[in-house]
Input
Amino acid sequence: MQITTIALVAFLLMGCSMIEEVKPWEKENLAKPIMQFEGLHPEVTKFESHVYFSKEASRGGSGVAGGGCGCN
Amino acid sequence: MLKKTLYTLLVSTIGLMALETGETIPQNIQEQLKLENDKIYVVDFFASWCKSCKKELPLVEKVYQDKSAEIIGINVDKNREDGEKMVSDLALSFPIVYDTDKTLVETFNPLGFPALYYVKNGKILNIIFGAVDEIDKKIDADMKVLK
Output
Protein backbone atom coordinates (compact mmCIF):
# COMPACT_ATOMS: atom_id res chain seq x y z
CA MET A 1 0.00 0.00 0.00
CA GLN A 2 2.79 2.36 1.06
CA ILE A 3 4.82 1.57 -2.05
CA THR A 4 1.80 2.17 -4.24
CA THR A 5 1.24 5.58 -2.60
CA ILE A 6 4.92 6.54 -3.08
CA ALA A 7 4.81 5.39 -6.71
CA LEU A 8 1.61 7.35 -7.30
CA VAL A 9 3.04 10.54 -5.73
CA ALA A 10 6.28 10.13 -7.72
CA PHE A 11 4.25 9.66 -10.90
CA LEU A 12 2.21 12.81 -10.19
CA LEU A 13 5.35 14.84 -9.41
CA MET A 14 6.93 13.58 -12.64
CA GLY A 15 3.96 15.08 -14.46
CA CYS A 16 4.68 18.48 -12.86
CA SER A 17 8.26 18.44 -14.14
CA MET A 18 7.06 18.10 -17.71
CA ILE A 19 5.31 21.47 -17.79
CA GLU A 20 7.35 23.44 -20.27
CA GLU A 21 8.30 27.01 -19.46
CA VAL A 22 7.08 29.62 -21.94
CA LYS A 23 10.12 31.59 -23.04
CA PRO A 24 9.95 35.39 -23.54
CA TRP A 25 10.23 35.01 -27.31
CA GLU A 26 7.33 32.56 -27.36
CA LYS A 27 4.83 34.98 -25.83
CA GLU A 28 3.46 36.29 -29.10
CA ASN A 29 -0.03 34.97 -28.43
CA LEU A 30 0.01 36.24 -24.84
CA ALA A 31 0.87 39.72 -26.11
CA LYS A 32 -2.20 39.89 -28.35
CA PRO A 33 -4.85 42.46 -27.34
CA ILE A 34 -7.46 39.72 -26.92
CA MET A 35 -5.33 38.21 -24.13
CA GLN A 36 -5.69 41.34 -22.02
CA PHE A 37 -7.91 41.04 -19.00
CA GLU A 38 -10.32 43.64 -20.42
CA GLY A 39 -10.59 41.78 -23.74
CA LEU A 40 -10.88 43.46 -27.11
CA HIS A 41 -13.30 46.15 -25.95
CA PRO A 42 -11.95 47.80 -22.79
CA GLU A 43 -14.68 50.48 -22.91
CA VAL A 44 -17.35 47.78 -22.29
CA THR A 45 -15.38 46.42 -19.34
CA LYS A 46 -14.95 49.95 -18.03
CA PHE A 47 -18.72 50.44 -18.15
CA GLU A 48 -19.36 47.10 -16.45
CA SER A 49 -16.80 47.98 -13.76
CA HIS A 50 -18.62 51.26 -13.18
CA VAL A 51 -21.95 49.44 -12.74
CA TYR A 52 -20.30 46.94 -10.39
CA PHE A 53 -18.66 49.71 -8.38
CA SER A 54 -21.96 51.63 -8.14
CA LYS A 55 -23.91 48.55 -6.99
CA GLU A 56 -21.33 47.02 -4.67
CA ALA A 57 -19.60 50.19 -3.47
CA SER A 58 -16.26 48.50 -4.04
CA ARG A 59 -13.68 48.52 -6.77
CA GLY A 60 -10.36 46.97 -7.69
CA GLY A 61 -9.20 43.39 -7.62
CA SER A 62 -9.95 42.90 -11.28
CA GLY A 63 -6.47 41.95 -12.45
CA VAL A 64 -3.41 43.72 -13.67
CA ALA A 65 -2.55 45.51 -16.91
CA GLY A 66 -0.26 44.13 -19.57
CA GLY A 67 -0.26 41.36 -22.12
CA GLY A 68 2.65 39.43 -20.62
CA CYS A 69 5.31 39.79 -23.30
CA GLY A 70 8.02 39.45 -20.66
CA CYS A 71 8.87 43.15 -20.79
CA ASN A 72 10.08 44.42 -17.40
CA MET B 1 19.17 3.12 -17.83
CA LEU B 2 19.17 5.57 -14.89
CA LYS B 3 22.63 6.84 -15.85
CA LYS B 4 21.47 7.44 -19.42
CA THR B 5 18.36 9.33 -18.22
CA LEU B 6 20.42 11.51 -15.86
CA TYR B 7 22.95 12.22 -18.62
CA THR B 8 20.17 13.24 -21.04
CA LEU B 9 18.63 15.47 -18.37
CA LEU B 10 22.01 17.10 -17.64
CA VAL B 11 22.75 17.74 -21.32
CA SER B 12 19.29 19.21 -21.93
CA THR B 13 19.63 21.44 -18.82
CA ILE B 14 23.02 22.73 -19.97
CA GLY B 15 21.56 23.28 -23.43
CA LEU B 16 18.83 25.46 -21.97
CA MET B 17 21.17 27.61 -19.88
CA ALA B 18 21.26 31.27 -20.77
CA LEU B 19 24.37 33.13 -21.86
CA GLU B 20 25.41 35.38 -19.00
CA THR B 21 27.74 38.38 -18.66
CA GLY B 22 31.37 37.30 -19.04
CA GLU B 23 30.53 34.25 -21.12
CA THR B 24 31.65 33.73 -24.70
CA ILE B 25 29.19 33.30 -27.54
CA PRO B 26 29.66 30.03 -29.49
CA GLN B 27 31.92 30.42 -32.54
CA ASN B 28 29.23 29.47 -35.06
CA ILE B 29 26.91 32.17 -33.69
CA GLN B 30 29.71 34.75 -33.81
CA GLU B 31 30.24 33.86 -37.46
CA GLN B 32 26.53 34.04 -38.17
CA LEU B 33 26.38 37.55 -36.66
CA LYS B 34 29.59 38.51 -38.53
CA LEU B 35 31.16 39.98 -35.40
CA GLU B 36 34.50 41.71 -35.97
CA ASN B 37 37.27 41.72 -33.39
CA ASP B 38 37.85 44.68 -31.06
CA LYS B 39 34.47 46.26 -31.82
CA ILE B 40 31.71 46.56 -29.26
CA TYR B 41 28.38 45.40 -30.65
CA VAL B 42 24.94 45.94 -29.22
CA VAL B 43 22.92 42.85 -30.09
CA ASP B 44 19.24 43.70 -29.75
CA PHE B 45 16.60 40.96 -29.74
CA PHE B 46 13.12 42.14 -30.69
CA ALA B 47 9.77 41.01 -32.07
CA SER B 48 6.92 42.78 -33.86
CA TRP B 49 4.43 41.86 -31.11
CA CYS B 50 6.62 43.30 -28.34
CA LYS B 51 5.32 46.78 -27.51
CA SER B 52 8.40 47.76 -25.53
CA CYS B 53 10.55 46.84 -28.52
CA LYS B 54 8.51 49.19 -30.71
CA LYS B 55 9.13 51.97 -28.22
CA GLU B 56 12.84 51.27 -27.90
CA LEU B 57 13.88 50.54 -31.48
CA PRO B 58 13.62 54.13 -32.83
CA LEU B 59 15.98 55.18 -30.02
CA VAL B 60 18.36 52.31 -30.86
CA GLU B 61 18.24 53.49 -34.48
CA LYS B 62 19.21 56.97 -33.25
CA VAL B 63 22.28 55.46 -31.52
CA TYR B 64 23.19 53.73 -34.80
CA GLN B 65 22.71 56.94 -36.81
CA ASP B 66 24.89 58.86 -34.33
CA LYS B 67 27.55 56.13 -34.78
CA SER B 68 27.75 55.74 -31.02
CA ALA B 69 27.66 51.94 -31.30
CA GLU B 70 27.55 49.05 -33.75
CA ILE B 71 24.06 47.59 -33.62
CA ILE B 72 22.83 44.19 -34.74
CA GLY B 73 19.10 43.59 -34.52
CA ILE B 74 17.76 40.08 -34.20
CA ASN B 75 14.12 39.65 -35.09
CA VAL B 76 12.50 36.57 -33.57
CA ASP B 77 9.11 36.66 -35.28
CA LYS B 78 7.78 33.32 -36.49
CA ASN B 79 6.86 34.95 -39.78
CA ARG B 80 9.73 36.82 -41.36
CA GLU B 81 7.21 39.13 -43.10
CA ASP B 82 6.02 40.46 -39.71
CA GLY B 83 9.60 41.33 -38.79
CA GLU B 84 10.30 42.91 -42.16
CA LYS B 85 7.15 45.02 -41.90
CA MET B 86 8.19 46.25 -38.44
CA VAL B 87 11.71 47.07 -39.69
CA SER B 88 10.21 48.91 -42.65
CA ASP B 89 7.60 50.79 -40.54
CA LEU B 90 10.23 51.93 -38.04
CA ALA B 91 12.74 52.67 -40.86
CA LEU B 92 15.53 50.76 -39.15
CA SER B 93 18.82 50.92 -41.05
CA PHE B 94 21.11 48.83 -38.86
CA PRO B 95 21.83 45.20 -39.83
CA ILE B 96 18.96 42.84 -38.99
CA VAL B 97 19.15 39.07 -38.69
CA TYR B 98 15.85 37.20 -39.02
CA ASP B 99 15.98 34.35 -36.53
CA THR B 100 12.92 32.48 -37.73
CA ASP B 101 14.35 29.08 -36.73
CA LYS B 102 15.11 30.50 -33.22
CA THR B 103 18.76 29.32 -33.28
CA LEU B 104 20.14 32.62 -32.01
CA VAL B 105 17.51 33.38 -29.40
CA GLU B 106 17.66 29.85 -27.99
CA THR B 107 21.44 30.14 -27.69
CA PHE B 108 21.30 33.47 -25.86
CA ASN B 109 18.16 32.37 -23.97
CA PRO B 110 17.23 35.87 -22.68
CA LEU B 111 15.06 36.17 -19.58
CA GLY B 112 12.95 39.01 -20.98
CA PHE B 113 12.18 41.09 -24.03
CA PRO B 114 13.56 43.31 -25.44
CA ALA B 115 17.03 41.93 -24.69
CA LEU B 116 20.19 43.89 -25.34
CA TYR B 117 23.65 42.31 -25.20
CA TYR B 118 26.92 44.23 -25.33
CA VAL B 119 29.44 41.98 -27.07
CA LYS B 120 33.17 42.43 -27.69
CA ASN B 121 35.45 39.76 -29.17
CA GLY B 122 32.64 37.27 -28.75
CA LYS B 123 32.36 37.94 -25.03
CA ILE B 124 29.22 39.32 -23.38
CA LEU B 125 30.12 42.48 -21.47
CA ASN B 126 26.68 43.47 -20.22
CA ILE B 127 23.01 42.60 -20.63
CA ILE B 128 19.82 44.68 -20.41
CA PHE B 129 16.45 42.94 -20.21
CA GLY B 130 13.09 44.65 -20.56
CA ALA B 131 12.12 48.15 -21.53
CA VAL B 132 14.35 51.02 -20.46
CA ASP B 133 13.31 54.66 -20.73
CA GLU B 134 15.70 56.66 -22.92
CA ILE B 135 17.64 53.55 -23.96
CA ASP B 136 19.73 55.71 -26.32
CA LYS B 137 21.20 57.61 -23.39
CA LYS B 138 21.70 54.36 -21.50
CA ILE B 139 23.60 52.83 -24.44
CA ASP B 140 25.72 55.98 -24.84
CA ALA B 141 26.60 55.92 -21.15
CA ASP B 142 27.35 52.17 -21.19
CA MET B 143 29.54 52.49 -24.28
CA LYS B 144 31.64 55.16 -22.55
CA VAL B 145 32.22 52.81 -19.63
CA LEU B 146 32.87 49.72 -21.77
CA LYS B 147 35.29 51.37 -24.26
About this structure: Residues 7 and 38 of chain A are 43 Å apart (CA to CA). The interface with chain B takes residues 23-25, 27-28, 31-32, 67, 69-72 of chain A (CB under 8 Å). Helices of chain A lie at 2-17, 42-56. The two ends of chain A are 49 Å apart (CA to CA).
